[in-house]
Design goal:
By secondary structure, this protein is mainly α.
Length: 287
């Protein structure tokens, strides 16, 4: 972003945080303590994201992605369905904007092979966006599952670039062991017959994606690669919680467990990939 848009962004963010804090004070008086804490959590997440941007750690689009993710989490937990339908897709829209800005900034005018990593990252986020929409709607679990399967396949291809396949064998064995254990638990808990094959494929692919992320981290040994690997683990945690909540036993306040780990996963992967091989973006150049 240029200086003028950056100043405008800082101003708008400051006003939004101030208005949000004032609104929370009035709103929290009429709700339960738990609901008040959830609302305060949204403000805290927004302030932390804004502060990270001010310090030059993340870009402006990443701030908006995290804020939308926090809003999606809170609106789901509080049963604010219509607001949730807006906030949840917005998070991935902002993530896609961050990738577009990162591609433009990193390789202006280049449409060749060097652009492909950004395309795979964008494809993974677009598939995640589709999965988010499908999973918000009744009766569309399988399309949602397939969308996220495609997303993880895109991530798997992305994480293979420049490094060997599964070069960290302990990580591969660990993720596969966790995948087998989770699938066995779901099967014994009564996983529907029609879902056994697609869930098995999904569990295998996400385990492979996480293993490849750690293989990449071992090969590159960079902070950005570590963030991506941690994001992959967070994705596994989020999907495991989702599966337990859906097929084993309902988890109390499940959105507060599933969605933060999901958005942390996407944010870590996006930030890590956008900053791989480069110094951390400063507030004057971040998108």
């Amino acid at each position: 972003m240029n200086a003028s848009p950056l100043r405008s962004f800082a101003t708008v963010q400051g006003i939004a945080l101030t208005v949000g804090a004032i609104a929370w004070v009035g709103w929290a008086r009429g709700v339960s303590l738990t609901e008040g804490v959830i609302g305060l959590g949204v403000l805290g997440a927004a302030f932390a994201a804004w502060l990270a941007w001010r310090k030059g750690w993340i870009g402006a689009w990443e701030v908006l992605m995290l804020e939308a993710g926090a809003a999606a989490t809170a609106t789901s937990a509080l049963g604010m369905q219509h607001a949730h339908w807006v906030a949840k897709p917005l998070a991935m829209v902002f993530a896609l904007a961050a990738v577009a800005e990162g591609a433009r900034r990193a390789i202006p005018g280049d449409r060749g092979d060097r652009h492909r990593p950004f395309r795979w990252l964008a494809a993974a986020l677009a598939a995640s966006l589709a999965g988010d929409v499908f999973l918000m709607l009744r009766g569309l679990f399988i399309p949602g599952l397939i969308s996220f399967l495609v997303a993880h396949l895109c991530y798997l291809v992305l994480l293979r670039r420049g490094v060997p396949w599964f070069g960290h064998r302990p990580a591969l064995f660990a993720t596969l062991a966790l995948a087998v254990a989770m699938y066995t638990w779901l099967w014994l808990a009564g996983l529907p017959t029609m879902l056994r094959a697609p869930v098995a494929a999904y569990v295998l692919v996400i385990a492979a994606m996480a293993a490849q992320a750690w293989s990449r981290q071992r090969a590159l040994a960079t902070r950005s690669a570590l963030l991506v690997a941690l994001g992959a683990c967070s994705f596994m945690a989020s999907d495991s919680l989702l599966a337990i909540n859906r097929f084993v036993t309902p988890l109390p306040w499940s959105p507060l467990l599933i969605l933060p780990t999901y958005y942390a996963a996407q944010a870590l992967i996006v930030h890590g990939m956008l900053n791989e091989g480069s110094r951390p973006a400063s507030a004057s150049t971040s998108g």
